[in-house]
Amino acid sequence: MAARPLVARQPNEKLQALLQEAECSNAGLARRVNLCGLEHGLDLRYDKTSVARWLRGQQPRGRAPAIISEALGRKLGRSVTLDEIGMADAKNQAMGVGLHFAPTVAGAVEQACELWRSDIGRRGVFGGATVVSSALVEPSRDWLITPPDGQVARNAGPRVGMPDVAAVRATTESLSQLDHRFGGGHVRPVVVHYLNSVVSGLLTGSYREPVGRALFGAAARLTELAGYMAVDTGQTGLAQRHFIQALRLAQAAGDRAYGGYVLAASMSHLTASLGNPREAAQLARAAQEGARGHATPRTEAMFCAAEARGHALLGDVRACHEAAGRARSAMERAAARSPEEDPVWIAHFDRAYLADELAHCHRDLGRPREAAEQAGESLAGHPESRVRRRAIGTFLLASAQLQKRELEHACQTGAKAVELLSVLRSGRGIEYLEDFRRRLVPFVKEPVVRDFTARLDVSPAL
Question: Which residues have a Cβ under 8 Å from the Cβ of 186 and sit 6 or more positions away?
């Protein structure tokens, strides 16, 4: 990779200090960087002269600064940031990582791998990033109009087969179940490490067309899960990047239905939670259009429910009712089919999940009776293993009871939700708790409300 021109640069004393700490020579660092780059599919050919230039203040382009920090981190046995190696300017480059829908399969692999690598130990780069709605709408447009990828097979690197794909799928299932039980705060670091250390190596390996399509599909699903967990840990800007790359990987897999799922279940819900209901409804509509003829009825039900959520937040009763009706009709059609006809990634969306979505709609439209009914139906259907979903549903029920002025019932229900939260590390769960507390403010003088908030203030779990 070419270096930037040397223009009155100061010596890179930070890098020099780290080299001394690591007891690493210039040639040794160059060798480690080249080997690290090779693992990420990069043919780097740095030598001791290259390192000398970096020490004089030059900064290599592209992904090289992050590779340098990773190589030094391995030598030191700890995470090393771009700031520590004196290449913080690379943060400006990193801020664009993962925000684009790559036009080629090779570009998609490079962007996804770069995102996963940047995610490891570099929360400072993305942690403060915010979601830009246009950055989600633009990839959805690209997904809608981009023709299918003609070929994804590769002939370079270690051989990859269907057993490798099966391993990624099984790992994803296990991590997803742990996420439901304990929240993204416990599980997300494992997901990102697996993507960076295992999945990236598979994508840059050698595989035939059928294996490649299946591999891209498996990678898309695990990438979406990493984004979902980023939402659950309050890293919405990072979640946005993973969702975009999951959408592109689904395109490479040739899976239009899963691409629609990423738009509706991930991007639409993210924008809705951040106060952009119009974009939420549009993304859900894009999912329906782009996956038309490819989605099962259960998948269609989820798409329509996501659209209904957006309309409810906009206060559009008619549009919400129409979309919710389509969701119910699709779920009825799904009930008449064999569950084996559905892809594994939509199997969780059952009547309980649909009721949960509709409870949100009724709450946002100011219909507490209907919201309570749907929340109750949702809780009756969710198994005990869906701890986070049960916590959210319980807060929904408590909010509906509060809207009906049933203060004692609302606080009792809220206490049950708080108990569920105690076993989770979930930012989303905390958000629902804070929302419930805000709804209690008009009733703060009531004894039952004072008792509830007092218990919260001394709770060791929150």
Answer: 178, 425
Identify residue 448 by its one-letter amino acid code.
Answer: V
CA distance 376 to 356: 9
pLDDT > 90 in the chain, percent:
70
**Can you tell me the distance from the alpha carbon of 303 to that of 315, in angstroms, rounded to the nearest whole number?**
19
Rounded-to-integer distance, Cα 418 and Cα 416, Å: 5
How far is residue 166 from each of residues 161, 173, 448, measured CA to CA in Å? 9, 11, 53
Vertex 114, ends 142 and 279: CA angle to 5°? 35
Cα–Cα distance, 427 to 233 (Å, whole number): 5
CB 433 within 8 A of CB 421: yes
Contacts 24+ apart (CB under 8 A), 175-180: 175/222, 175/225, 176/225, 177/385, 179/225, 179/228, 179/229, 179/232, 179/388, 180/385, 180/386, 180/387, 180/388, 180/389
Residues 359/324, Cβ–Cβ less than 8 Å: no
* Out of 89-98, 234-243, 276-285, 421-430, least confident range: 89-98
Mean pLDDT value across residues 261-279: 94
